[in-house]
């Protein structure tokens, strides 16, 4: 399904790892992908920079404070153009909120099990693998 450029919704996501190399994931509370695990993130609000949106979205969904770095990659999923940024966690307490029913750190085995069980949003595992940002733990 294609969408005209005028209906593209700019979104951001955060790719963050803890000190053990585990990847930060949230279980989506709402569609698209309700009930599935994904990277934290969401829509960029009008007048908001990508950096500000990443900081806001990760704080709202995970309770964590982050510093966004470089863009790791961009994907288009339906009308959503998602720019995923490398993030460094600087504080906060991991707590699900906003569009997240759960939040957790996922190691390589856990992420593989989520993929095998069909519990990840479409193409997340393949995309992270292709970008070489799978958990190292």
UniProtKB/TrEMBL annotation:
GO function terms (MF aspect): hydrolase activity
Ranges for domain Nudix hydrolase: 7-128
PROSITE patterns assigned: NUDIX, NUDIX_BOX
Keywords carried by this UniProt record: Hydrolase
A Pfam family: NUDIX
Family that this chain belongs to: Belongs to the Nudix hydrolase family.
InterPro entries with a match to the protein in the record: Nudix_hydrolase (IPR020476), NUDIX_hydrolase-like_dom_sf (IPR015797), NUDIX_hydrolase_CS (IPR020084), NUDIX_hydrolase_dom (IPR000086)
Protein name: NUDIX domain-containing protein
């Amino acid at each position: 399904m294609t969408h005209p450029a005028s209906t593209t919704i700019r979104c951001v996501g955060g790719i963050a790892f803890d000190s053990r190399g585990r990847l930060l994931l949230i279980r989506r509370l709402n569609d698209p992908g309700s009930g599935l695990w994904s990277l934290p993130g969401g829509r960029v609000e009008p007048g908001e920079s990508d950096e500000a949106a990443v900081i806001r979205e990760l704080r709202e969904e995970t309770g964590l404070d982050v510093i966004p770095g470089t863009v790791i990659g961009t994907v288009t999923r339906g009308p959503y153009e998602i720019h995923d940024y490398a993030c460094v966690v600087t504080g906060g307490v991991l707590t699900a909120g906003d569009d997240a029913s759960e939040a957790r750190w996922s190691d390589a085995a856990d992420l593989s099990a989520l993929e095998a069980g069909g519990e990840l949003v479409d193409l997340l595992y393949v995309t992270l693998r292709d970008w070489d940002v799978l958990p190292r733990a």
